[in-house]
Amino acid sequence: MSQDNLVGRTVAGYTLLDHVGEGGTATVYRAQHPERGLAAVKLLRSRIGQDPIAVKRFLREAEFGARLDHPNIVRTYEFGEAEGMYFLALEWAAGEPLASFLTASGPLAPDLVGKIIGQLGDALGVAHKAGIIHRDLKPANIMYDPATQTARLLDFGIARDAEDDPNQRLTRAGFFVGTLQYVAPEALSGELVKEQADVYSLATIAYHLLTGQLPYPGKNPRELFQQLLTKPPIPLSQAAKGLKFSPELESVVMKGLERDLTKRWKNITEFATAFCQAARGDEKGKGGFFSSLFRKR
To answer: Do 59 and 100 have their domain in common?
Structure first.
């Protein structure tokens, strides 16, 4: 079956309604299932399906998703091979990619960012306890529903199992995986990373949501790569003109962006808890914000 025009076809019981997205290896459709209702169906491109490593990555994403059960992680329904294609069926998540929401809204108020980071921290904590390191955290891989202020994590396509045998890895040593703007510096060598890499990426997301900017201003991959390895990130309160943050919040975020792992938050729960506390401010007035600088969202 050709994947050029699958709208209206049924794959593994899922009737494909609309084409909703393209990735480097897969095509995504909105689909209807007689029992599950709306779903997202990801189909591995036929030419990619000839590559055993690509197939193994695709199925690994499905397996990792199926191991996780959390309200802030998009649920995996089923996966496998049908009609000569590899498919992954996911719960249909309301809302839009967090990246799109941020582009339309601009910097978000700290209390809202606290809600988002708290939800993602809880979800990642469950993933880490299951031994899964995401490795590609970014706003494009997070679904956000403004109506309910709910964030949901998806796309475990390059996640890895913390118990992986280094000899069985799917990435060659010396080649990093992830998205350069959000990847932890220690990942740039291509070595296996631990959960502190996800801490760094989540701190970068928090920085971006608060300021609309990224911690490093590199204009191209080479420049950005060099900055990640050699320069400190721009302090949070210097990222965007007119935005100032409390010392407590700035300290929490910048500790998450430490290049030195001994200085970075040790795990995702520590970071998310500290961030949420700083974002809402404690009862003694610490962690307060210049709230007049932010419009309500």
So the answer is: no
- Alpha-carbon distance of 120 to 166, in angstroms, equals 28
Q: What is the pLDDT of residues 82-116, one digit of tens each?
A: 988 899 999 999 999 999 999 999 999 999 999 99
Q: With CA atoms as reference, report the closest residue to 61 among 71, 47, 73.
A: 73
The answer to whether residues 82 and 185 belong to one domain is: no
Q: Alpha carbon of 101 to those of 39, 96, 140, 145, 297: distances in Å? A: 22, 7, 10, 9, 11
Share of the chain above pLDDT 70, in %: 86
Cα of first residue to Cα of last residue in the chain, in angstroms, is: 45
**How much of the chain, in percent, has pLDDT values that exceed 90?**
64
Say how many domains are in the chain: 2
**CB atoms inside a 10 Å sphere around CB 121:** 25
pLDDT band for 54, please (50, 70, 90 cuts). Answer: confident
Same domain? 111 vs 180: yes
Q: For residues 89 and 108, what is the distance between their CA atoms, to the nearest angstrom?
A: 32
Amino acid at 187: A
Residues 142 and 251 in one domain: yes
What sections of the chain are H helices per DSSP? 52-66, 98-105, 110-129, 195-211, 221-230, 247-256, 268-280
Q: Is residue 1 part of a domain?
A: no
Which residue segment(s) compose the domain that 112 sits in? Answer: 96-293
pTM beyond 0.90, yes or no: no
Residues 35 and 100 in one domain: no
- Same domain (yes/no): 124, 36: no
Q: Which residues carry out catalysis? A: 136
User: Does residue 206 sit in the same domain as residue 62?
Assistant: no
Question: What digits encode the pLDDT tens for the residues 226-253?
Answer: 999 999 999 999 999 999 999 999 999 9
Residue 210 lies in a domain: yes
CB count within 10 Å of CB 150 equals 17
